[in-house]
Amino acid sequence: MEPINNKADCKEQFTPNLATNHALLQEVLGDNADIIFHGFHTGNHLSALCVYCSSLCDTERLERQLLSPMLGDDFSSKSDADTASFKSEGYNSSASNTGLHVPMSSIQNVCTIDQAIHAILNGQALLLLEEQPIGRAYSLPKSTSRAVEEPTAESTVRGPREGFTENLSVNLSLLRKRMKTPSLKLISSTQGQYTNTEIVLAYVEGIIDPALIKEVQSRLRKLKLKGVMESYYIEKGIADAQYSPFPQMISTERPDVVAANLLEGRFALIIDGTPFSLVAPVSIFSMLQSPEDYYENRYMSLFVRWLRYIFAVISVMLPSAYVAITTYHQEMIPTVLLLSISRAREEIPFPALVEAMIMEIAFEALREAGVRLPKQVGAAVSIVGALIIGQAATSAGIVSAPMVIIVALTGIASFMIPRYAAGIVSRLLRFPIMILAGTLGLVGMMLGVIVIVIHLSSLRSFGMSYLSPFAPASAQGVNKVQRCHDVEEHVN
Amino acid sequence: MTKRIGSESKTVPAKLRWKRTLQALTLISFLVLAGCWDRIEVNDLAIILATGVDTRGDQVEMTAQIFIPRKSGGGMGGSSSGETSSSGVTMIRTAVGSNVAEAMNRLQRKVSRNVFWGHCEVIVISEQASKQGLHQYLDFFLRFTQIREHAYVFSTDKKARDILALLPPLERSSAESLREMGNLKLGTHVTVLNLAQSIEGPSRSAVLSRMLILAPTSGQSKFISDPYVKGLSLIKGDHYVKTVTEPMSVGVLMLLNQLNNIIMPIDLDGNEGAVSIRLISMRTTLTPRIANNEWSMMIKVDAKGEVVLNTTTRSITDPHKNTMVEEQWKKKLTELAENALKLSQKQLKTDFFGFSIQFRRHYPRKWKSQKENWDATFENMKVDVRVDTLITSTGKSTDPQGVPGQSVH
């Protein structure tokens, strides 16, 4: 545990003097309304100080399990021996220290101010006794997390309905419930100068490449953040190419997805305070996978997966292709279709590129408005949007009907990408390619595609090529990506 | 240019400088190669659906059928669908020039939008124009980048312009009627490319479908009508020579292996009435033979058909009688083929059916040495016609239907 505090004297050890210890703690924590300094005398008339954070500690349990046994009469007789041994053996003997006859299992010895502060701010109650240069931290967390609910961002028809919550220990329990093996390692660390957010690195020993774990840990160590509000803070910090629009880690709120990925030799970062965990290393094909690919009939999964690939391309390219072909390469359109398009476009005042831009931007605005607004108002937005864009704009002759179809299809296509982060990329890349297509025709569009492919093939996610297993090609890998069910592989 | 850049930024290493210059040049070249100035919106196009070629004096008259992209599917629109062509979705523009290219150029001056030939799928050439030689038109159609080489070519004895001016009540445009008829294989199925190849090839001839204009329903505008296929125009060299109509055209199509969609009445000996046979499939194969320096051709025709009408009183379910019908049909087909051959060999002395192509393919060396004498060889060539017919079905009924008193027996 890294000592993080700006006060120089914090590495200082506790003194045997209780009043000094009190003063030291008071200096650091004094101005906080929720930090309680409770001084009292134990059953055998020892001065004691209990420091805890009232907003994090379960006060009722504190009183029942810690304070009342100490104040009680029977405390004195037992604790005489304790105190004696405590004094003679010093604070190295933890066996006797924990034997304070308090009905609790999670007790930690605290020697420095710094450790003490860390413990208090993590919701532990710190107990200091007179003439002892060591404190004890009792874990008495107040449970404030919401219940485990169905993940909203990644829903499936078939599959577990549990999703991660904001509470780390709940999340770990969800994961541990799925993987009852000692090989599952959960390594904890903290991140954030002010937030001290706990991050748990999860992996399965024996499956994962140990070099990968070293690499992740070193990257995490190098990361210096002020705070961690969401997993993206971490993702951004430890990703290979930080300026790439493509996500290099999967963020998921499904414990089953995390567990399945751990079994495939990936690692996961579970972060306190957010339901979204990170999984890496991944390739672009992981972005186009849904957990349900593994939960349903393999032929259907294969079909849906290929549909997703096709629509992923459509979501980036369709408006550009339409613009390029209708403005530069009319001979490529079947005659009858061209006649319909020309009839629809006859009264449109804008060039196809401008028309496409208007529609796409309006669509993005609508989507953004729909996401940000409260749910009840969101429905109104979609009604207004559908009416204005679908109906009024076409009948007023501002936008042609084929363009509405193209934009709608593109919208549906981008919704088909199961990973939200990857879907955003397709929405973003659409615009530059559209401009290229509008200015240079299909040549420009291909130019855009080439740039994207070059970028993708140079991209790495924790050393793994982003286009793998297709580039560099591996027949085995391709087979694995295409075969949705590799349960057999897990077994051996 | 590069020197100046070099002097300005001495700190940049030479290799990097080159790289940057190259990158900049690449980016600039993309802007120069193609760009917004080549952009043509669909609204700025005059989409040409069909082209007609006529002659006026010794000049070429070119007609373009242009699509009017107005929303015609309004429904409420106008009850004024009388004689005005307001309901039409196409219009025509005609221009005259000393050659096709000039005519085309003048055509553009009569249209307010960019004339776009990329969707011209039908070309109608009047017999008048093809008499003067197809070469000049074909070269233009195959050279000018916008025109499709798989556009259908039709011939007409009227003015091509009149056919394009039609506003068919069924189809969107007469171009579409023509194209659909080409797809239905009512006549020959000839594209610009086929036409050029068959004229340029050793047979030096071509056969085009001949289109006429259906007389409009009385009271209707003369434009509200359809083109229809009637007969074939025979092209020798690149000139029009003759028109053939039924029954001769059937024989010609048969030997061209392009006979389709036909019902043939067959007389039966010693019977009143006839049996009509619908052709199901027909395959014509040409087998050349050179024996003892004598060139001959074997034509084998396999025809399958079904009976659709029997106006005789005889039942044809009996296999024996069935064979008789087949024999009669065979006789008829043989006669048609022989007439067509006579026309080709003796009268016009033109190899319409591509015998020369077969000889060239099967006997390339002998063909090379005898190429010069081909005309004489062809005229006197012995041709065997062997027709095999098969009636696969006699239809829904067995006995003749509707014969008075039939069921009394």
From TrEMBL, chain A:
User: In its keyword annotation, does this UniProt entry include Membrane?
Assistant: yes
- State the organism named in the record: Paenibacillus terricola
Q: What is this protein called?
A: Spore germination protein
Q: Where is this region: Disordered?
A: 73-98
User: Which InterPro entries does the record associate with it?
Assistant: Spore_Ger, UPF0353/GerABKA_families
Which intervals of the chain form a coiled coil?
A: none
Which top-rank group of organisms is this from? Answer: Bacteria
| Listed PANTHER family | LEUCINE ZIPPER PROTEIN 4, SPORE GERMINATION PROTEIN
Residues crossing the lipid bilayer are 267-288, 309-328, 378-398, 404-421, 433-456
Q: Which UniProt keywords apply?
A: Membrane, Transmembrane, Transmembrane helix
* Family as reported in the entry's similarity comment: Belongs to the GerABKA family.
Signal sequence interval, chain numbering: none
UniProtKB/TrEMBL annotation, chain B:
Question: Could you list the residue ranges forming a coiled coil in this record?
Answer: none
Q: Which UniProt keywords apply?
A: Germination, Lipoprotein, Membrane, Palmitate, Signal
Q: Any keyword Lipoprotein?
A: yes
Question: Residue ranges of the Spore germination protein N-terminal domain?
Answer: 38-209
**What Pfam family is a match for this entry?**
Spore_GerAC_N
Query: Where is this protein localized, as stated in its record?
Result: Membrane
Query: Does the record carry Amino-acid biosynthesis as a key word?
Result: no
Question: Domain named Spore germination GerAC-like C-terminal: which ranges?
Answer: 231-395
- Homology family: Belongs to the GerABKC lipoprotein family.
Q: NCBIfam families attached here?
A: spore_ger_x_C (TIGR02887)
Q: What is this protein called?
A: Ger(X)C family spore germination protein
Origin species, per record, is Paenibacillus terricola
